[in-house]
Specification:
elongated
Length: 179
């Protein structure tokens, strides 16, 4: 009986690993193209913010929305939020409430309704892309494209991120199904 349980655990672990690699390491993503606004999600400021900033400078959108930019631990986003004028694009900074991807999606919805945006480009990390797409699709009825910055430099965090995202996806699919 113990041997059977061990084999079953190995099968379940193997299936989760394959699914986690598909969802968090090699997810499908949208290509950055013209949008009404770019929104960069909080976290991993060393990768997300510079990529979103370069897209804004390249003219992908006339507005750059920075989640948690003013309070960010990353100095360049704090600096941009403290001086939002004179960049060739509009800068909007906010702190999501609740402080979560769901809070960011809800705030993006409020901004989209206020400014009549019909398209958003959401910039996040690769491991976060699947859940971010799911939440933004729920809140914005498919008007958001999601783009990943690539894999973080520190791959040691990947197993923890995969487990964390699995738990958070479980919540999104069960107890937190709305926007």
């Amino acid at each position: 009986m113990l041997r059977l349980l061990f084999r079953l655990a190995l099968v379940v672990l193997g299936a989760w690993l394959v699914l986690a690699l598909y969802l968090f390491v090699w997810p499908s993503q949208d290509h950055p193209r013209r949008a009404a606004a770019i929104i960069v999600l909080a976290g991993d400021g060393a990768h997300r913010f510079p990529r979103a900033l370069s897209l804004a400078r390249a003219g992908v959108a006339p507005v750059l929305v920075v989640s948690d930019g003013a309070q960010s631990e990353w100095a360049p986003s704090r600096k941009l939020c403290a001086n939002p004028r004179g960049h060739g694009f509009r800068v909007i900074c906010f702190r999501p409430a609740p402080y979560s991807t769901r809070g960011e999606a809800r705030r993006a919805l409020a901004l989209a309704e206020r400014y009549h945006w019909r398209s958003l480009l959401v910039v996040t990390s690769t491991y976060h892309l699947f859940r971010a797409r799911l939440l933004f699709d729920r809140c914005l009825n498919g008007h958001a494209r999601v783009y990943a910055t690539g894999t973080d430099d520190n791959l040691a965090w990947l197993p923890l991120n995969m487990v964390s995202e699995t738990v958070k996806l479980g919540l999104v699919f069960t107890t937190r199904r709305g926007c």
